[in-house]
Amino acid sequence: MKRMTKAVVPVAGLGTRFLPATKALPKEMLPVVDKPAIQYVVEEAVRAGLDDVLMVTGRNKNALENHFDRATELEATLISKGDTQKLAKVEESTILGEIHYMRQGDPRGLGHAVHRAKRHVGQEPFAVLLGDDLIHENDRLLDRMIEVNAEKHTCVVALMEVDPSQTHMYGIATVEGTGDDDVVVVKDLVEKPDPDEAPSNLAVIGRYVLEPEVFPTIEHTAPGRGGEIQLTDALATMARDPRQRVHGVVFRGRRFDTGDKLSYIKAIIELAFEREDLGDELRIWLKEQLGN
Ligand code: UTP
């Protein structure tokens, strides 16, 4: 069987929750410790064997393109100084697979952004990784989703239990168990329901493995919540169709939504704790702060 190689990373959202930082910079370029969020996401895709990455971009895409390109002047300066450590840091984002870019045009929603990838993807299953959602590198969510797709030949979404008060921030799934503890059949999906209308507390997070049949489904999906073409609505149509079906992988690892301010700050602290060069001092400082 052919190995999956393609990842689509939509990065065309307006990032209004992070204004004014996102006025001239895509939110995916905000650093988490010392690396832009988007680099963690591309590294995750490449680790899972997806080395053909298509970014669907919006305004301010230059910063993204520059980040994954060579920086010859900077590299030459670091070479002349003999600073090989910093040179390696500059170069690490330029050797990550093959990265393609296309514009979304109008930001008409995540479903619309994914649909822009139709020609690039062709007739193969592919992954979608949201550029502002980080999965801890020790947790192999994407590998598991690719495995489930290869077995079931359906679209696969990543699901995570959230606090019932947070359902209005996510697509929420109605599910049925399978023989596997971490795999469910998704019977239906609803986009951002109020807590009293949510069918469960299983939320769709920013990783998807999709079959190419998703494209015609998106084409027949009317604008939904917020007037946007929602990927969740297209997947709900597929979930309700017994000929297509959708599966979910229930993720119990660590995930950070860097598009949300509090979660972004938590990501920085948690990942900095794990760093040899920062963790100890940060712990001491934080204890002092909490003691006051
Ligand atoms: P969000 O719901 O987080 O929206 O998008 P947003 O506009 O980026 O952020 P806020 O709410 O204004 O702060 C989820 C993902 O879908 C992408 C975003 O880049 C993000 O990765 N997206 C969303 C697009 O690529 N295009 C769109 O039209 C909408």
UniProtKB/TrEMBL annotation:
Broad class of enzyme this protein falls into: transferase
InterPro entries: GalU_uridylyltTrfase_bac/arc, NTP_transferase_dom, Nucleotide-diphossugar_trans
Molecular function GO labels: UTP:glucose-1-phosphate uridylyltransferase activity
Documented EC number(s): 2.7.7.9
Presence of keyword Transferase: yes
Keyword line: Nucleotidyltransferase, Transferase
CDD domains: UGPase_prokaryotic (cd02541)
Residue span(s) of domain Nucleotidyl transferase: 6-268
Catalytic activity: alpha-D-glucose 1-phosphate + UTP + H(+) = UDP-alpha-D-glucose + diphosphate
Highest taxon in the source lineage: Bacteria
A GO BP annotation: UDP-alpha-D-glucose metabolic process
NCBIfam families: galU
Family recorded in the similarity comment: Belongs to the UDPGP type 2 family.
Name recorded for this polypeptide: UTP--glucose-1-phosphate uridylyltransferase
Species, as recorded: Candidatus Agrococcus pullicola
Gene name, Swiss-Prot/TrEMBL: galU
